[in-house]
């Protein structure tokens, strides 16, 4: 298993650093996570997704990862039992994956908080908005 400053507990969100982006899963115990992933061969905003349950070590590989319950200060987390049960129930489902509206971070925040939120998308939209404001050509 990856090395953690804080050992994951069932229901915790796991953030995996993939360089410029992060992949997210929810820890369900026994070194396993449930996560929304895609067919890696496809490019674009929307594609086929699949909810998988995998050993965390297989998903993390050599990347850095951490427990990051990023919205605990804003929203009350659901109970660990409910999070784990709902995560396991979704394994094998094939929702449409959409980078802006239904990505892996949306998936895990919905499980933990009942709110589908992606801070990665929020930061990207903010950065684009600031770039547009700063560009003399686009005014």
Automatic annotation (TrEMBL):
GO molecular function: N-acyltransferase activity; phospholipase A1 activity; phospholipase A2 activity
InterPro entries linked: H-rev107_PLA/AT, LRAT_dom
Organism: Conger conger (Conger eel)
Pfam families named in the record: LRAT
Residue intervals of the LRAT domain: 13-120
Family: Belongs to the H-rev107 family.
Biological process terms in GO annotation: N-acylphosphatidylethanolamine metabolic process
One GO cellular component term: cytoplasm
Lineage: Eukaryota, Metazoa, Chordata, Craniata, Vertebrata
PROSITE patterns: LRAT
UniProt KW keywords: Hydrolase, Lipid metabolism, Transferase
Name the record gives this protein: LRAT domain-containing protein
Keyword Transferase among record annotations: yes
């Amino acid at each position: 298993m990856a090395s953690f400053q804080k050992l994951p507990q069932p229901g915790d969100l796991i953030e995996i650093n993939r360089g410029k982006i992060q992949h997210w899963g929810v820890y369900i115990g026994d070194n396993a996570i449930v996560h929304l992933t895609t067919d890696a061969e496809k490019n674009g905003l929307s594609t086929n997704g699949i909810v998988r349950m995998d050993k965390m070590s297989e998903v993390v590989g050599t990347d850095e990862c951490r427990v990051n319950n990023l919205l605990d200060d804003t929203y009350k987390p659901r109970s660990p039992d409910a999070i784990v049960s709902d995560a396991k129930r979704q394994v094998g489902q094939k929702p449409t994956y959409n980078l802006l509206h239904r990505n892996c971070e949306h998936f895990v925040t919905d499980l933990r908080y009942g709110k589908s939120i992606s801070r990665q998308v929020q930061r990207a939209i903010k950065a684009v908005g600031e770039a547009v404001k700063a560009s003399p050509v686009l005014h």
